[in-house]
Amino acid sequence: MRDLVHDGDTVALEGFTHLIPHAAGHELIRQGRRDLTLVRMTPDLVYDQLIGMGAARKLVFSWGGNPGVGSLHRLRDAVEHAYPAPLELEEHSHAGMAVAYAAGASDLPFGVLRGYRDGDLPARTRVAPIECPFTGEVLAAVPAHRPDVGIVHAQQADRHGNVQLWGITGVQKEAVLASARSIVTVEEIVDELEPRPGAIVLPAWVVDAVCLAPGGAHPSYAHGYYDRDNGFYRAWDEISRDRDRFATWMRRHVVETADVVEYRASLAEAVPA
Amino acid sequence: MRDLVHDGDTVALEGFTHLIPHAAGHELIRQGRRDLTLVRMTPDLVYDQLIGMGAARKLVFSWGGNPGVGSLHRLRDAVEHAYPAPLELEEHSHAGMAVAYAAGASDLPFGVLRGYRDGDLPARTRVAPIECPFTGEVLAAVPAHRPDVGIVHAQQADRHGNVQLWGITGVQKEAVLASARSIVTVEEIVDELEPRPGAIVLPAWVVDAVCLAPGGAHPSYAHGYYDRDNGFYRAWDEISRDRDRFATWMRRHVVETADVVEYRASLAEAVPA
Amino acid sequence: MTGTWTADEIMAVEAARRLRDGMVCFVGIGLPSLAANLARRTHAPGCVLVYESGTIGAKPRRLPLSIGDGELAETADAVVSVPEMFAYWLQAGRIDVGFLGAAQIDRHGNLNSTVIGSYDSPAVRLPGGGGAPEIATGVRDVFVMLRQTPRAFVPSLDFTTSLGERVRVVVTDLGVLEPRDGELTLIATHPGVTADESREATGWDLRVAGDLRETEPPSGAELAALRSLREAA
Amino acid sequence: MTGTWTADEIMAVEAARRLRDGMVCFVGIGLPSLAANLARRTHAPGCVLVYESGTIGAKPRRLPLSIGDGELAETADAVVSVPEMFAYWLQAGRIDVGFLGAAQIDRHGNLNSTVIGSYDSPAVRLPGGGGAPEIATGVRDVFVMLRQTPRAFVPSLDFTTSLGERVRVVVTDLGVLEPRDGELTLIATHPGVTADESREATGWDLRVAGDLRETEPPSGAELAALRSLREAA
Fold first, then answer.
1. pLDDT tens-digit profile of D188-214?
2. Within-domain flag for D1
3. Is residue D2 part of a domain?
4. How far apart are CA A193 and CA A196, in angstroms?
């Protein structure tokens, strides 16, 4: 990961509610990455942490809350008070983000949707009217997402580096294929991938690095491996609300842990305290 | 099917090399449909038969051969000699057809691809240049396919009418979703669909009719049910080469059979003869 | 068990009653999910639940806690990618009803879920539009669920995130509003709530329908189904 | 077994030799599929076969008879829809080599697979472009496999179906042509074939490379692998 992600890069960590690549986000924090442009439909806790640690210069997103709980306080602090640093926003709708990723995966410079109509969002995002040459209907064009690095978490890779993920697969295939480089963290490495209903497979030759990171989606979930840690999402509201408490938590559980195994162990220790 | 397909309709029978809806094509012939606009990436034997029987006014397609064998003689006879009737052509590339179906499934009036560049095809098809509003790159816009009726063959439906097909699934989902009405013929009706790797599922509420037609893809194949009848594809070259022999064959095996069961039985009888 | 219920409960019941069997609903988490699942367990068992995470025809046995709950994928008729969900299903007009919430609503049903204050220097940065802008224009009917306060029901939005043109009903903790002649109008109050209380909770001069009625109280069956759903979660 | 081989065999062998381990190849049925599968069984076991039917990384145990053979789906790393294949995989530039055939080729490698004669009133209606137009401009290198006759190697195409700008090699039954200074040039003849024979089989005044060489005869191992592939089919 150190070789593939550089300061200043545009990075997309995807996983729509499921398989959120938290372990990869933590590793970016441990490596002290700076000035990142972070792309993600739903920033979730993973970007709240990166933003709160000052790793981001810009956020490209469509819904920035703590699902089912409320605000992302570090994101809000950055936007409302420029703390710890100003954060530029490029804001989309989900539909616009999805089309932009699909255009990137297709190596098209733009994608088309019927959306961004009126309202105040079009003036605040990158969108342009485009006319159908056959019917004259005016639709919205959005520029393709082409991140420098796409990062996703998957259940399995095989020894050749082919990757399989299943359950809710969101926009992960598009995020990987739209990016110049890609990294996949996985729950386990198996001898052979057994085809699964609803799975997507990313062949080894479109993935630059596969890293073993069991539990690497926590507090998100990995279908067939472990459930979403709903308690952690609720607890994050309190942890992240206060700047110092956030900093202390991040130091103890992320900065001062070496990897996902130590991170998980540090959380287990913290619970009884 | 009699209620859903009318003379003059635009009809798409899809199935890319696999699950070609032959039984449905035969039923259109038995019902004496006329003036159809037939849409299909690879016309294959199913459209050779419809064209040879005079059911079609126009063909929208991208590759019109007998795969691995050679020509579609009834298609050629219609184009080269207007027999049994003139056939208007709207010719695309595979990529253009795929984008047009996807645009139709998305209810967009057009789709965009990097294609149809130079050469003589752009002058012969429905394509228009479209400029990226962000980069200035000129790409190709193709009008969406919006057939009146989309027809596919699938392995299974459940008792609620939910449909599952697996193996090579081609452009079938798009063909159904792009069409105003849809018909699915299936190998079998089961109590419950068991999720399969690589399957697509069409919920009952996007399908207008499900018809049981075991063997309904013959001479194409149904993954998990029966193999492609390669011998039939080779034999078709001879059967279809001659107008009278074709007419005799169609009468015996299609017009004078009531359904797919009788069709299959008539073929079995013919083999020893 | 009748006679006493929470604001959430009557909102969920009133929204659920508007769903018909066989309707296809684009459902967000929280109250909309509660309402839609309640409808499936009472009068509309064939109501089709679509979540933006890609699950079509989900039949959750317990109330999901996120729109990407594994339970949704396991019980769905189909799970599709997010790009496919927005293009082939929402944009293509296959969804009958979409539920939306927001921080602010105006008299035309336009919604703000983006910022309180100015966009560049907001007092409160809200989560943003998510699926709402295209849900608001892509489904046939928009149902809004929102607690009624003068801070939420405002004369002028700080930011227009989604358009109100397809809003057919706004179910609040105080009553039910529907558009009449292009303006949201109070058409029902919940039991025990007066029209004046509803007007006081609204930041604009709220129109009241001449045929104002009282919401039918949640039935015992409705409340029982609702509570068993929440307990299972 | 060396010393005698068919035109198809030497064409498949010569094409296969140009594939390197790990290359991603867009393969059509017939000779291209034979060549690519031969490469996988000889010097390039890691060659990735992509068929336009949607199968990525197919490892067929017998030679498929159609591009949609069930064997391809069963042995593939991934099976994707046809729209995805053309958008995310071909158009996105993920394919190294694409094989094309045609009815006619000109000196610039432009191909005709649409009609002989005029489009509106053709002498022979050919199958049409299929995937070829976008393969020709979407892959890095186009390999053409085509029997060399004056009817096929023409000064002027009746119809330009696909562009020749990325054609890197044309393997025929008589020899091998590569573009030199923008024109296809004979760079090798197969054993027993003279440059004059190749020129006579060409409808334009064929350039012959100064360093014209003779194709290395198919080895025993190549022929054995090729024949066992065909026998298994």
1. 999 999 999 999 999 999 999 999 999
2. no
3. no
4. 9
The domain in which residue C49 lies consists of: 7-231
Which residues sit opposite B65 in a β-bridge? B71
Residue A184 in tokens: 């996949």
DSSP state of B76: H
Interface B-C, measured as beta-carbon pairs within 8 A, has a size of: 32
With respect to residue C93, please indicate whether it lies within any of the assigned structural domains. yes
Structure-token pair, residue C41: 């367990």
**Count of structural domains, chain D:** 1
pLDDT digits (tens, 9 = 90+) for B31-73: 999 999 999 999 999 999 999 999 999 999 999 999 989 999 9
| Residue A254 placed within a domain | yes
DSSP for D150-181?
A: TTTB-SS-SS--B--TTEEEEE-SSEEEEEET
- At residue D3, the pLDDT reads 64
Give the mutation candidate from A201, A202, A207 for the D interface (greatest D CB count, under 10 A): A201
**Domain tally, chain B:** 1
Asked if residue C140 belongs to a domain, the reply is yes
In a domain, A72, yes or no: yes
State what percent of residues in chain C have pLDDT above 90: 87
Q: What is the mean pLDDT of residues C54-62?
A: 91
CB contact under 8 A, B223 and D66: no
CATH code assigned at A250: 3.40.1080.10
Beta bridge partners of A197: B197
Total Cβ atoms within 10 A of residue B86: 11
Region of residue D95 (left: phi > 0; alpha: psi -120 to 50; beta: else) = beta
Mean pLDDT (whole number) for B206-218: 98
Give domain status of residue A2, yes or no: no
In our burial notation (b when 16+ CB lie closer than 10 A, e otherwise), range C33-60 reads bbbbbbbbbbebeebbbbbbbbbbbbbb
- Which DSSP letter does residue B197 get? B
pLDDT tens column, D146-161: 999 999 999 999 999 9
Q: At what angle do helices B44-52 and B230-241 cross, to 10 degrees?
A: 20
Are A193 and A61 in contact by the 8 Å Cβ rule? The answer is: no
Q: Do residues A228 and A220 lie in contact, with contact meaning Cβ atoms separated by under 8 Å?
A: yes
Which of C77, C91, C95 is the mutation pick for testing B, counting most B CBs within 10 A? C77
* B262-267 LR contacts (CB < 8 Å, sep 24+): B263/B23, B263/B26, B263/B218, B264/B215, B264/B218, B267/B218
Measured in degrees and rounded to the nearest 5, phi and psi for residue B10 equal -95, 120
CATH number, domain of D154, equals: 3.40.1080.10
Instruction: Identify all chain C residues contacting A61, using CB atoms and an 8 Å cutoff.
Output: 128
Beta bridge partners of B188: B156
D171 contacts D144 by C-beta, under 8 angstroms = yes
Report d(CA A103, CA A144) in Å as an integer: 5
Tell me which DSSP letter residue A208 carries: S
Assess if residue A27 is contained within a domain.
yes
CA-based angle A210:A211:A214, to the nearest 5? 130
pLDDT for residue D66: 75
Torsion B45-B49-B52-B57 (CA) sign: negative
Asked if residue B127 lies in contact with residue B110, where contact means CB atoms within 8 angstroms, the answer is: no
Q: Which two tokens stand for residue D59?
A: 């490892």
Beta strand pairing status for D24-27 and D48-51? parallel
Query: C171: which 2 tokens?
Result: 């179910």
State whether residue B86 sits within 8 Å of chain A by CB. Answer: no
Measured between CB atoms, which of D68, D86, D160 is closest to B17? D68
Does the pLDDT of residue C2 top 60, yes or no? no
Closest-CA distance of chain B to residue D24, Å: 19
Residue positions counted in chain A: 273
Rounded distance between C-alpha atoms, residue D169 and residue D186, angstroms: 10
Q: Can you give the pTM of this predicted structure?
A: 0.97
pLDDT at residue C209, as a whole number: 98
